[in-house]
Fold:
Amino acid sequence: DAKTTQPPSMDCAEGRAANLPCNHSTISGNEYVYWYRQIHSQGPQYIIHGLKNNETNEMASLIITEDRKSSTLILPHATLRDTAVYYCIVIRIADKLIFGTGTRLQVFP
Amino acid sequence: GAVVSQHPSWVICKSGTSVKIECRSLDFQATTMFWYRQFPKQSLMLMATSNEGSKATYEQGVEKDKFLINHASLTLSTLTVTSAHPEDSSFYICSARVMNEQFFGPGTRLTVL
Structure:
């Protein structure tokens, strides 16, 4: 599986967009980019995933660069409840999820 | 999304006893479930992959005789921590795969005294 690199922590003001970057320069053609988040003392929550096209759902948008070596998860209007650790994971479909250290996002009032 | 439950949500036990944690898929059938462990301020570590009707596959370094996994039905997988010790105290999380997504349970916090 491709390795990902994420900043250890980020801050975001409530109501603003949170843009969480992820580098995956060794991603291969059949690997997807998945994003999960974990709120303190809870199980991880699926957010979104994509292969090469940008994706959007009710929670977030995923922007994948054309060369697929990096991506950005966008929470359009962050709330205090979005404070969590966000994990970017690159895997082939149906592979098991291996979690890195993620980005700790703190949303402040 | 699909719902995965775990029971109990927390448990305290004495050293040397065994503890069973249940993981259920509530509104779907899961042929594959996963068990993770998470220590404070650390990321999730995959322990094993549980396949319905067959033996679990353990990750390197995980003792299969200590962490017994049973996946007897398409909606239930159990993890039994045998002869628990204080160093087994952790947050145990299961997940189930549906199509191309993995859904996670709320976790079970185990404290071994």
The two ends of chain B are 36 Å apart (CA to CA). Chain B touches chain A at residues 1, 4, 6, 34, 36, 43-46, 49, 91, 93, 95, 97, 100-107, 109 (CB under 8 Å).
